[in-house]
Amino acid sequence: MQIAIALYENFTALDAVGPYETLGNLPGAETVLVAERTGPVRNDRGGLSVVATRTFAEVTRPDVVVVPGGPDPVNQTGNKALLDWLRAVDPTTTWTTSVCTGSLALAAAGLLTGRRATTHWLAMDTLESLGARPTGERVVFDGKYVTAAGVSSGIDMGLTLAGRLQGDMVAQVIQLMTEYDPQPPYDAGSPDKAPAEVVAFCRSELQT
Amino acid sequence: MQIAIALYENFTALDAVGPYETLGNLPGAETVLVAERTGPVRNDRGGLSVVATRTFAEVTRPDVVVVPGGPDPVNQTGNKALLDWLRAVDPTTTWTTSVCTGSLALAAAGLLTGRRATTHWLAMDTLESLGARPTGERVVFDGKYVTAAGVSSGIDMGLTLAGRLQGDMVAQVIQLMTEYDPQPPYDAGSPDKAPAEVVAFCRSELQT
């Protein structure tokens, strides 16, 4: 089984690394980091680069595709190399997945038309404008398309999909080895739960 | 404020990226990825490299230090370059922190002697043998030393420390922007909660 995590300039590091450490830890899985070109790919803040080890042209039959997001939708919806690759490999994947605004790339590639899907909470309107049907769930399954909410949700998506692929025991071993027993110091992880002034600040100052 | 995340061969990627996306998102913070040499540093599974942009020699006065862990303790306790750097920079840090078995490096450098601390649940005995006093908490503060449990706990540590440094509002903005509203599909993230056979498998098959 080959899991291909797509990288592109301005991706969010945790979007890629959450699924890498969960889904990518499945026994027997080969996880590859794939991009238009091999070599370092810079993240959204510019200070962290992850090395792509394969080009899109080299990865033609991945079983699972994971597309991370990033703060500026143009990096997903306007990325021709990424969208062309997604359209080319999707017909033979078992699962085509995304984290955060990675779903905007899937939608822009035409893969989520009419499908239930999710994205970062600040990008729901953009996802809808691309033809998907946004939901408020953290991890959304619609056929073989699995989309997760913002950034850290890729961990929940990765564990959920690990369970579907190899069973609950294997997924729980991965959860225990990554000690994923979350204890956030605040309860502000979704717009429904965060204080109103926190939500307002994000909408006014941080929405791209 | 400079936050220095140390990299070394065989580190666990999520240990570094969890704090990077939380603590490292503080307004005004410069986050640097530092290692013995600049360039790509391979993770524990060998397939993911993060690029170190500074050498230990170049980063002499970080305000915050973060040491990620990795599965084989020799990579922490036997890493002379890392330990020498930790001893050199610790006297002037505001916070010296670790995720997972990163605390074994802090302890081997002599920084946790007699202090309350934590590590990956499979490494508690090793931490104790290095002079620290292990606890079962997920994030442990003892003076300026902050240690977190395994792998994913670096997200909780990063948010907690973000709040200490710049207040609850800023930390909650980071939590909301990373949509950290965890919904694990299983409740197996600690040895107290996971099914006995899952714990037993990890102890017998996966302990280094």
TrEMBL record, chains A, B:
Record-linked Pfam families: DJ-1_PfpI
UniProt KW Lyase keyword: yes
Domain DJ-1/PfpI stretches: 2-161
Domain of life where this protein originates: Bacteria
EC id: 4.2.1.-
InterPro entries: Class_I_gatase-like, DJ-1/PfpI, INH-QAR
UniProt KW Kinase keyword: no
Keywords, alphabetical: Lyase
Root EC class: lyase
GO molecular function: lyase activity
Identification of the protein by name: DJ-1/PfpI family protein
Provenance organism: Streptomyces cremeus
